[in-house]
Design goal:
It contains 1 helix and 12 strands. The protein is mainly β and 136 residues long. The protein has a single domain, classed as Sandwich (Jelly Rolls), CATH 2.60.120.10. The strands form 3 sheets. A 5-stranded antiparallel sheet has the order 1-9-6-11-4, with no helix packed on it. A hairpin with a 4-residue loop joins strand 7 and strand 8. The N and C termini lie close together (10 Å). This is FdtA/QdtA family cupin domain-containing protein.
């Protein structure tokens, strides 16, 4: 779990522009992992926080398919905030990175593409446990 903040990257997703509306496509090798699970967050009150965990091995790509929100990333030593507000930009988060989502705009939708199916044992939900796991 030697991942660092610099391993979290934003990626332009393929966009097909059309006067009737644009389409973004995620297939083949667009992401650096195979997608095994898809879910999305919506109707999140603007003063709420989501996330608040890290993953042991799972990788994710977050996309603001509507509206905007901030993703606070922390590798145990450094942190940074990434604002997602375009449906053709994905934020790739590898394993071993703590993440929190906040500042959801009205009507925002956060699409999450994950490299594994849900497994509670994959989650580290306490920040002190995360730091202990990260540096041992």
């Amino acid at each position: 779990m030697n991942t660092k903040i610099t391993d979290c990257i934003t990626k332009h997703l393929p966009k097909i522009e059309d006067h009737r509306g644009n389409i973004s496509v995620i297939e083949k090798d667009v992401l650096p992992f195979a997608v095994k699970r898809v879910y999305y967050l919506y109707d999140v009150p603007s003063n709420s926080r989501r996330g608040g965990h890290a993953h042991r091995e799972l990788h994710e790509c977050l996309v603001a398919v509507s509206g905007s929100f901030d993703v606070i990333l922390n590798d145990g030593e450094n942190s940074k905030t990434v604002t997602l507000n375009k449906p053709d930009i994905g934020l790739i988060i590898p394993d071993g990175i703590w993440r929190e989502l906040e500042n959801f705009s009205s009507g925002s939708v956060c699409l999450v593409l994950a490299s594994q199916e849900f497994n509670e044992d994959e989650y580290i939900r306490d920040f002190n446990d995360f730091k202990a796991h990260k540096f041992n």
